[in-house]
Predict the structure.
Amino acid sequence: MRKGWLSLLGLAILMAGTTISEAGATSRLEPHGGEVIDAANYLIWARCSIGQQWKEEVGCVGEVKNLTRDEALQAATDGWRLPLTNELSSLIDENRAFDKLIPTINEDLFPGMDWDKLAYWTNSPYGRFDFWRVHFDIGKAIPYGDPRMVKAAVRLVKDIPKPKKEN
């Protein structure tokens, strides 16, 4: 019994040194200039939202643009695309969401979030006409109405080619 208690105490001491950015979703994400690499999911994320540009030593500069879904699809060029709901939701920092900290995304990795524009488009349909949006104000994905009229922010993603399996 005493040995088990000491093991738990040792684990608690180790965990006490773990920061929020080292835990949860953000532990698998690695910044590289204007991009964030998610090697576990074979993705490259744009650090800045559409309307912003990455500037070394400063972060994301410019204004986050809210776009219709069609405008968002047109903005996705050169291999960039709108993320699926599960991909974009993977950026929600569960620790921040649990503590009700806004935004629910790691701002060290994704700086320049606009508190008035925290709903982001995905490319995942919901029913016949709606599409999911990830809300970084509440840390959840919610289906939303007519994507031709409703506007939301956009964070683009690229796929990293998966290594080919050897036979």
Remarks:
- The chain has one domain: 17-159.
- Residues 2-16 form the longest helix (15 residues).
- The beta strands are 29-32, 35-38, 43-46, 52-55, 59-62, 119-126, 130-135, 140-144, 157-159.
